[in-house]
Design brief:
The protein is α/β, with parallel strands linked by helices and about 325 residues long. It is about 30% helix and about 25% strand. A six-stranded antiparallel β-sheet has the order 2-1-4-5-7-6, with helices on one face. Strands 8-12-13-3-14-15 form a six-stranded mixed β-sheet, with helices on both faces. The longest helix is centred in the C-terminal third of the chain and has 16 residues.
Amino acid sequence: MFQSLAIQHFRGFGKLALEGIGRVNLVVGKNNTGKTSLLEAITLLADPGTLKSLPGLFRANAGSVGERFYRWLPRDGAIDGETVLSATVPGTDPRQVLLTRTQQIKPGWPGDLQHAESTGTLHIWRSKNLDPLDLHAVSVQHQGPDAMVDAFAEAVRSPEDEAQMVSLLSAVDPRIRTVRLDAVKSKPFVVVDVGLSERVPLSQAGQGIYRLVAIFSELLGHKPKICFIDEIENGIHYSALPKVWAGIAEVAARLDIQVFATTHSWECLLAAHEVFAARDTYDFRVLQLYRLGETISGRVLDQAHIEAAIAGEIELR
């Protein structure tokens, strides 16, 4: 897992250092404090080869991505070679990524780097010992029944994955015994056994369980090491958030996934804290971004800091 991050002259960040990052991290902050930019920096640190797919990962982009997107990855006014991303992972050498507008290493540029990817207008360099990490951005859009069937079928192709799906869901809701595909007039749909006389369609099992099956299907299907969930509360009633967070906590621990999610919701933050506080290990951190004048700064809050902020009603969103 990433334990610390350092960002220099990337998008709106001048210099940002975050220490003590956890397994599950909730990124909070007002609009225009760099939450999405932070996810993009983590993406490039995990796998510099994602540079070409980055424009559509977290943002809506159209037209010339060179002018509308890549031009703005280095901070406005930054000298070429100043845009540096770094991360530490326990037991490995530090990871480092450099973004430049030229394809030649210049004296004074940091580290022992090798060229990784180009877009035509931007080049990315990485430390030579940087092994790419599989990552996946979970869709925040509500999946319709047909899309859910495809994702679910991909996730439970093996008996092990099917057992893992049921085990994860039953850990969150003990009523759940099985989850499988059914069909009426050859049209498949997902059904859940919750102890009633018949299995019920997933859409009737509750909003929290529906969203969990969607998230678990994506994670079991892709098996990433890093998972992004932008605006995690999107489309979820606050009463279902504890169940969603309980599922995320379970899947992150069992599948060894590091999660970075964003939110604007106080109820979402409270639900996450309460879920992790009830677990044996508090593997949850809040990454708070905020502006000080024209500078974006940030800090990592652990359990004690989160509890103090909640008790003092200190704004964290």
